[in-house]
Design a protein that fits this description.
- The complex is a heterodimer of chains A (302) and B (302).
- By secondary structure, chain A is of the alpha/beta class.
- Chain A has one domain: Glutaconate Coenzyme A-transferase (3-Layer(aba) Sandwich).
- In chain A, the strands form five sheets. Chain A has an eight-stranded mixed beta sheet with strand order 2-1-5-10-11-12-13-14, with helices on both faces. Chain A has a two-stranded antiparallel ribbon with strand order 3-4.
- In chain A, strand 10, helix 5 and strand 11 form a beta-alpha-beta unit.
- Chain A is globular.
- In chain B, the strands form three sheets. In chain B, strands 1, 2, 3, 6, 10, 11, 12, 13 and 14 form a nine-stranded mixed beta sheet that branches. Chain B has a three-stranded antiparallel beta sheet with strand order 7-9-8, with helices on one face.
- In chain B, helix 1 crosses helix 2 and helix 5 crosses helix 7.
- Chain B has twelve helices and 14 strands.
- Chain B folds into two domains: 222 residues, Glutaconate Coenzyme A-transferase; 50 residues, no CATH class.
- Chain B has 302 residues and is of the alpha/beta class.
- In chain B, strand 2, helix 3 and strand 3 form a beta-alpha-beta unit.
- Chain B is globular.
- Classes of the chains: A alpha/beta (302), B alpha/beta (302).
- At the A-B interface, helix 3, strand 9, helix 4 and helix 8 of A face strand 5, helix 4, helix 5, helix 7 and helix 9 of B.
């Protein structure tokens, strides 16, 4: 019996598949985190996850919700300083960085700083976003980057207002000429399609489309004249194991969504869910990652 | 034998070292931020601060309380639950007051503190190149290095007047041991002109001497040590307590307008009187459960 999955879950699983086993991966907040954890629990059990705050190689039962909370060093190989992690990335030890983005343009540049708006400026923007965080560093320094974000017209713009995290800048040779060592983005994984980048022009094109989605629908959500690959194919749905893993890791739906942040949830509910994950008895599937065995918990009856 | 005793009450440390108009920094990064110290700064009505940002939640709170006039920042966000709405309001609408923003990536900030710690005028990084950060922040300089002519970005040293760090253990002299991620704590402690430590536990120096490898901050950088259990609530503190997500969701709900935020400040900071008053309001049962949830997954072995 096929397991029903959401488009967001498919997005996470496709992102997870961009990771190869044994790689060292730099993880950003949100969906990239979940994708990294899914990869670790499924096809890439020997991946080393690196968090900018200093955690290296954590293998945790509970999902890290941010790049610095305790799970980023649960069963970790090392707990270091930020400057060290960044320097190691700069030196070339980190193969791939996973990033989310607020706004992206056709050359894979990301904006998480300001949306200027019609008459706005940097100092007086329409929307002030959190800022780079480690995103600029990840985009600049990792061997390659994979970007994961939802496909919405207001997010996919011809040129971003502000380049927080460099993709291919103005396209073509621009990235190379800027002095950046890291390779740049290789995929943009969304909840309806996967995009990749042309070798020469460095412009984003449609590579894979979700089952049941039309090319026209994709075009309507892109703010420029999107190129389509002649080899465009239907993206592969997630496996049951991948989906179950995601749901176990994110029982509060904080990353997968579907629950409003402002929705009241008592402390007792929260406590109960966290205890369940600790006192688990195997149901879905065992995972062995980094040499440590986990038995996942019984999904809470909602 | 204790050669120096720097212990004092948190209120005394903030009163003595945090002056109106000074530059202030803190560590922790989304988690293990010194919330108790943040509350005390707001309670004492400090004004006109320059915040040099290595944290995410504390600056958002200080900005909302009208304490900050300038932010040299990398990322302001309330971990897990969402945007730093106070920060957004201040930049977008000037509520409660307009703030000047000078942006760096997190690695950029880390290098600033490192330069401050080494007392050199700047340090180079390979990130920031090609992005818009140098375009909008004149203090980031792009040069061709004097040896090989490669492009690098330079960031100026940061030596804030006060640095505040929350750690798991410290002795009375100020030797600090930190578990989990280290972030920028160790470099900030040296860069800051005055360093205030809040610690979950104060231990005898003999305990520090048992595992000197764990000492992240040596006593000679430290000016004040305050014993502040649960000093990072509602965030997590590795080995001590887990993140209080429902509390943060409620807090987030109270950030929707400036008035709601100030009402929250009145209830949880001003009327609470001090950190102990705040913890009583949170409730000992709740705190004990947060401890349990953390210790289920991570126990500090010494």
């Amino acid at each position: 019996m096929a397991l029903a999955y959401s488009r967001r879950e498919m997005m996470v699983s496709l992102c997870a598949r961009e990771i190869t086993d044994l790689e060292t991966i730099f993880i950003g907040v949100g969906a990239p985190l979940l994708a990294g954890m899914v990869a670790l629990r499924t096809h890439a059990p020997n991946v080393t996850m690196v968090f900018e705050a200093g955690g290296i190689g954590a293998v945790s039962r509970r999902i890290p919700w941010t790049i610095s909370d305790s799970p980023t060093t649960d069963n970790a190989l090392a707990a270091m300083e930020m400057w060290r992690v960044m320097a190691d990335t700069q030196r070339g030890y980190v193969n791939v960085g996973m990033l989310g983005g607020a706004q992206i343009d056709k050359f894979g540049n990301l904006n998480s700083t300001v949306i200027m708006g019609e008459n706005g400026t940097y100092d007086d923007p329409e929307v002030r976003l959190p800022g780079s965080g480690g995103a600029n560093d990840v985009a600049s320094l990792c061997g390659r980057t994979v970007i994961i974000m939802r496909l919405e017209k207001r997010r996919f713009v011809e040129r971003v207002d502000y380049i927080t995290s460099p993709g291919y800048l103005a396209g073509g040779e621009a990235r190379k000429l800027s002095g950046l060592k890291g390779g740049g983005p290789v995929a943009v994984v969304t909840d309806r399609a996967v995009f990749r980048f042309d070798q020469l022009t460095k412009e984003m094109y449609l590579a894979e489309i979700f089952p049941g989605i039309t090319v026209e629908e994709i075009r309507q959500n892109i703010g420029w004249d999107l190129k389509i690959s002649p080899e465009m194919r239907i993206a592969e749905p997630p496996t049951e194991r991948e989906v179950m893993t995601m749901r176990e890791l994110d029982p509060l739906g904080i990353i997968l969504g579907g629950k409003g942040v402002l929705q009241a949830e008592s402390f007792d509910d929260f406590y109960r869910l966290m205890k369940q994950s600790y006192e688990a008895d195997g149901i879905c599937c065992d995972s062995v990652c980094g040499g440590i065995t986990f038995r996942p918990f019984i999904l809470p009856q909602s | 034998m204790i050669s120096q005793d720097k212990t004092m009450l948190l209120g005394e440390a903030i009163d003595r070292y945090v002056r109106d108009g000074c530059s202030i920094s803190q560590c922790g990064l989304i988690m293990r931020e010194p919330l108790a110290a943040c509350h005390e700064i707001i309670r004492q009505g400090k004004k006109n601060l320059t915040y040099i940002g290595g944290g995410a939640e504390v600056p958002n709170m200080l900005i909302g309380a009208g304490a900050v006039s300038r932010a040299e920042t990398g990322y302001i966000w309330i971990g897990v639950v969402g945007a730093g709405l106070n920060y957004r309001r201040a930049v977008e609408k000037g509520i409660p007051n307009k703030i000047e923003v000078e942006e760096y990536s997190l690695n950029g900030l880390s290098m600033r503190f490192m330069a401050g710690a080494m007392d050199v005028p700047f340090l180079p990084t390979r990130s920031l190149l090609g992005s818009d950060l140098p375009r909008f922040n004149q203090k980031i300089k792009i040069i061709n290095d004097p040896y090989e002519g490669q492009q690098v970005a330079l960031v100026p040293k940061a030596q804030p007047d006060v640095g505040i760090i929350h750690v798991q253990r410290a002795d009375k002299m100020g030797n600090c041991q930190i578990w989990g991620y280290l972030g920028m704590d160790a470099v900030l402690a040296r860069a800051a002109k005055k360093t205030i430590i809040t610690a979950e536990e104060i231990v005898p120096t003999s305990e520090i001497r048992k595992i000197p490898n764990m000492t992240a901050i040596p006593h000679y950088c430290v000016d004040a040590v305050a014993h502040v259990p649960f000093g990072a609530h509602p965030q997590s503190c590795t080995g001590y307590y887990w993140v209080d997500v429902p509390f943060r969701r409620q807090f987030m709900a109270c950030n929707q307008t400036h008035e709601d935020y100030m009402q929250w400040v009145k209830e949880w900071i001003i009327d609470a009187g001090d950190w102990n008053g705040y913890l009583e309001k949170v409730g000992t049962d709740r705190l004990a459960k947060l401890q349990e949830l953390e210790k289920d997954n991570c126990r500090i072995p010494v």
